Each structure stands twice: as structure tokens, then as C-alpha cells.
Amino acid sequence: MGQEGGGASGRGLCHGPAGLGDEDGLPVASLGVLGPWQQQGMADSAQAQKLVYLVTGGCGFLGEHVVRMLLQQEPRLCELRVFDLHLGPWLEELETGPVQVTAIQGDVTQAHEVAAAVAGAHVVIHTAGLVDVFGRASPETIHEVNVQGTQNVIEACVQNGTRFLVYTSSMEVVGPNIKGQPFYRGNENTPYEAAHRHPYPRSKALAERLVLEANGRKVRGGLPLVTCALRPTGIYGEGHQIMKDFYHQGLRLGGRLLRAIPASVEHGRVYVGNVAWMHVLVARELEHRAPLMGGQVYFCYDNSPYKSYEDFNMEFLGPCGLRLVGSRPLLPYWLLLFLATLNALLQWLLRPLLLYAPLLNPYTLAVANTTFTVSTDKALRHFGYEPLFSWEESRARTIRWVQAGEDSTQ
Ligand SMILES: NC(=O)C1=CN([C@@H]2O[C@H](COP(=O)(O)OP(=O)(O)OC[C@H]3O[C@@H](n4cnc5c(N)ncnc54)[C@H](O)[C@@H]3O)[C@@H](O)[C@H]2O)C=CC1
Ligand SMILES: CC(C)CCC[C@@H](C)[C@H]1CC[C@H]2[C@@H]3[C@H](O)CC4=CC(=O)CC[C@]4(C)[C@H]3CC[C@]12C
Questions:
Q1: Could you report the per-residue pLDDT of 153-177, keeping only the tens digit for each?
Q2: Helix (H, G, I), strand (E, B) or coil at 189
């Protein structure tokens, strides 16, 4: 991918918020996009293309779906900036079209890089984050990326006069909590003691609070910032690396996976396409429904069935030839907890020599073993959200992706 210095090209075509100018300074690459079907849609639309969107973490699992969804579903888009620490090769596939796609390699922990990327954007969708519950990164790094990075995004919006900020939070800001209390089909108002010790949920909770508290702050030009936070449950779909890991583990075990979690434990899951669609809708509606939506949180939900983590995965891995062995956990809980604790101890002992970060640790065991599901219609009531993909379609797409055996989401 070609890279340019200086400001993002194509910005001259779009008008920034309140006529603010752009800033320079980041390595950027401009890529035209839109397939023929989208070009047709644009031609049909009487709406002018005028909006500049920035998606941080736009090359991640969710971020890529948000980027593609915006290109398909946001006719007012003029420029789409994709900001990420690691730019994905799939960006190159995007063809020249009426929407300017600007790839920006940058780090959310670097305030000046974020400020340069935000300059001139109308809407920021902040999905970038360090998703680590396995002990790969230090607690300090997780805090820096998830909390300081979010603070940098907020300050950049304020400095640049960008008024609309959508934050990808997580169900983890609520729970499961350290007491392992169940959250059974709860909604945004369900009382629950949110108490965290693990760096990831703690960082997401702090970052979410920063975003919500920033709602109403005056941005450059004097207008108020409008923010809201989306809380997905466990996301699945094309690009879900842990699903692929379980698939390969099952293949290594001769087509079998061994049940570890009771089937009665419900774990909330949501299809990535619907999470992306919810981000696009929120971003679109924030302007018109600011008094209602500003400072609000929304769980991300769809019609995916309530099941245990493993039984849910089998909806995809079963048709790919795997079998879940055992109607009850094959190992008693105390033994799993012992193994998880042993893994944590080994991780600590080996740290000076190598990174040992298996999927099973006391935290992941607790999350997988605690019922946490949501049932709400807040997003429908506030901004008309309905899942774009049915459960059948979400399932079929995910199965197709697992079977394809590649890492691309397409
Ligand atoms: N995967 C899941 O089940 C859930 C994820 N989330 C949230 O959704 C968001 C996206 O998560 P995923 O797509 O699953 O993770 P991901 O790891 O696939 O994507 C995160 C993206 O952020 C980028 N990034 C990380 N550090 C960065 C930095 N310092 N500067 C710029 N970019 C950086 C990464 O390169 C990556 O492309 C995260 O904020 C996460 O907390 C929320 C609920 C569930
Ligand atoms: C046999 C083991 C006990 C099974 C381990 C499964 C775990 C690796 C995963 C079970 C639940 C997952 C988490 C959950 O879906 C909620 C999440 C929300 C986020 O914001 C980030 C990801 C995650 C923490 C997710 C991570 C993997 C699990 C712990």
C-alpha cells in the first residue's frame, strides 16, 4: 500500500465540522472504495456525500466489519478514515470510488497522532482497544491503550470540533463480577454489582466512564460533544480468532472438543455484522437524537440463541465436523480451577523467559462459567435498531468462514 506524508488526501472534497481545517503529520494512504452495487446506491440517493468518519481500530475483527458496513450503509459518507496500529492488507482490495478511504497507521496512545487523524472528522467510532484477558500484555499497557487512548480520542474531538463520538465498550464493564453472580437476561437498568479486578474489564469500565462524562463538553466552535457507548456481549462471526483456535484444537483432537462448562450456563453472544450495524446506526442517529442518546449506554444484541459458550460454538463447529464430547463437564470444576491456577502460576514463573498465555486461566474460567446474558430493546426504542442479519444468516456466514479456512473476513 502506498503511503503519503502530510494530511489525508481527498479531504478537500469534504467539509470538516464547522469549517475547521485539517492537520498534517501522519503516514496515510488513500484508497478509493465502493463496489458497483454501492455506486448504484449512491447514484440513486439524492443525499450529498459530505461526511467524514474516522474508525479507530478499523483493521480489527469488529473494526473491519464497521468499515465495510459504513461503506455499504452510509450514503452521506465522503471520506472514511481507518486508523489502526496495524493496517490490514484487505484495505488494498478496496477500489477507487466516490468515498475516499484513508488508511492511517497510528497509535491511540499518541495524542498527536490521534489529533491529526480526528482533524476535520464529523464522527469518530472508537473501536480500537487491547482485548487481552490472557495475560499477553501488562496491566499498564492495557490501561494505556484502553483508557489513555480513549482520553486522547475525547480530547482530539474537543480540540478539533468533532461532535459525535461512539465508543465500543463491552459487556465486561458490567460483569461477570468477581463474585461470579449471574446476570440473567438483564438490560441496561438491571441492578448488578460491577466489581472488577482484571485489567481488561477495569480498563473498559474506566474508558466508558470517560466517554459518558465527556457528553455535553463544549468542542471547538462551542457546540456540545455527543457521546454514547455500545456494550457488545461476546462477539462472533467472520474474523473471530478464538473460534478458529477452537476449531483447530478440535481437529488436532480427532474431531472432538471436550466439554468443560455446564450446558446450563448461559453466555451472551452477538453477531459481528449486527454489532457493526448498530455502530453505524448510532453514529447516524446521534445528531438527530442527541438529547435522548447522548451519554447513554446500549447493550449490543440480536437474535442469537442463549446457550453456554461451548454449546454456542458448536452451532458453527458442529457443521464443520466437530463433536462436543460429554453432556456434562468431563472434568470437575475444582480440577479446572486448579489447572487454570496452575496456568496462571506458570505464566508468572515463565514470564522472564517466554510468554505463556493459554486460553484457560482463572479469569476466563470464571467468565465462561458464569451466566451473563442480555435481553433488552433499548436500542430499538432509542434509535430504531433491529438486527440486519437473522440468526440463520449469521450462523451460515460464520460456518462458511470457518470452513473457508482463511483469515480474511470476506
Ligand atoms: N471481541 C469481543 O468479543 C468484544 C470486543 N469488544 C470491544 O470491541 C473492540 C474491538 O475488539 P476486537 O475487534 O475484538 O479486537 P481486535 O483486537 O480484533 O481489534 C482491535 C483493533 O485495535 C487496534 N489497536 C490496538 N491497540 C491500538 C493502538 N494503541 N492504537 C491503534 N490501534 C490499536 C488493533 O490493531 C486492532 O486492529 C475493542 O474495544 C473491544 O474491547 C467488546 C465486547 C466484546
Ligand atoms: C474451556 C475454557 C474454560 C473456555 C475458555 C473460553 C474463553 C476463552 C472465552 C469465554 C468467554 C469469553 C469472553 C466473553 O465472550 C466476553 C468478552 C468480552 C470482551 O469485551 C472481550 C472478549 C471477552 C473477554 C471474551 C474472551 C474469551 C472468553 C473469556
A1: 999 999 999 999 999 999 999 989 8
A2: coil
Q: Which residue reads 463474585 in cell numbers? A: 179
- What is the domain partition of the chain in residue ranges? 11-240+268-308+374-395
234 touches ligand 2 (CB under 6 Å): yes
Alpha carbon distance 407, 405 (integer Å):
7
Short-list 206, 114, 116, 220, CA closest to 163: 220
Overall fold of domain 11-240+268-308+374-395: Rossmann fold (3.40.50)
Annotated catalytic, 236?
Answer: no
Among protein residues, the one whose CA lies closest to atom 24 of ligand 2:
133
Q: How many residues does the chain have?
A: 410
Q: What counts of helices (H) and strands (E) characterise the chain?
A: 14, 14
Could you say which of 200, 236, 301, 385 is catalytic?
A: 200
Cis before 176? omega within 30: yes
Give the max Cα distance, the chain.
Answer: 63
Q: Using CA atoms, how far apart are residues 13 and 49, in angstroms rounded to an integer? A: 9
Q: What is the per-residue pLDDT for 167?
A: 98
Copy the grid coordinates of residue 269.
453472544
* Ramachandran class of 323: left when φ > 0, alpha when ψ lies in -120 to 50, beta otherwise: beta
CB 118 less than 6 A from any atom of ligand 2: no
Long-range contacts of 11-14 (CB under 8 A, 24+ apart): 11/52, 11/79, 11/100, 11/102, 11/120, 13/78, 13/79, 13/100, 14/49, 14/50, 14/51, 14/52, 14/78, 14/79, 14/100, 14/120
CA distance 171 to 251: 31
DSSP 12: G
* 260 pocket-lining for ligand 2 (C-beta < 6 Å): yes
Q: What is the ipTM of this complex?
A: 0.98
